Amino acid sequence: METKQLLYQQCEAFLKQRLQSIQQKIKEIEKSLLSETKSSAGDKHETGRAMLQLEREKAGMQLAEVQKESALLSRVNLEQSSKIVHLGSVVRTTQANYFLAISCGLHEINDICFYAISPSTPIGKLLLGKKKGALITFRAQSFTITAIE
User: Is residue 69 located within the same domain as residue 102?
Assistant: First the structure.
């Protein structure tokens, strides 16, 4: 299987796992909110409910972020290849290798490490629109793009 497709699948798996984790957290918070209404009384009760509401809001924001990342990943065209770095490009450089899609860490494909990064990250912004042979300087380090897939 092609490197780009394998990286895409790992990004999908990352998002799926993150989504399941957030959904589980939301279920637990909902369950806790229901049990809070039945048992506690007074100020302690109100404080507990407020904390759970804050947790639910935080989980809701995390859920929205995962949905946004899923939408971005769905825009990746695995068939498209270009001589210019774009969303979905696998970029090999003299320093590291990157997959421009979503930020989800380091992935190893055929004993080669790739960083899955969002185009909106600082390094992603530097890579976008560049061609093979371009010199990139990031955090006082320079490297060259050796291949774009």
Answer: no
**pLDDT (tens digit per residue) in 73-100:** 999 999 888 899 999 999 999 999 999 9
DSSP SS3 for 77: coil
Helix H, strand E, coil C: the string for 84-149 is ECCCCCEEEECCCEEEECCCCEEEEECCEEEEEECCCCHHHHHHCCCECCCEEEECCEEEEEEEEC
- The model's pTM is 0.86
**Is there a contact between 124 and 91 (Cβ–Cβ < 8 Å)?**
no
Domain housing 99: 90-148
Single-letter code of the amino acid located at 53: Q
DSSP state of 80: -
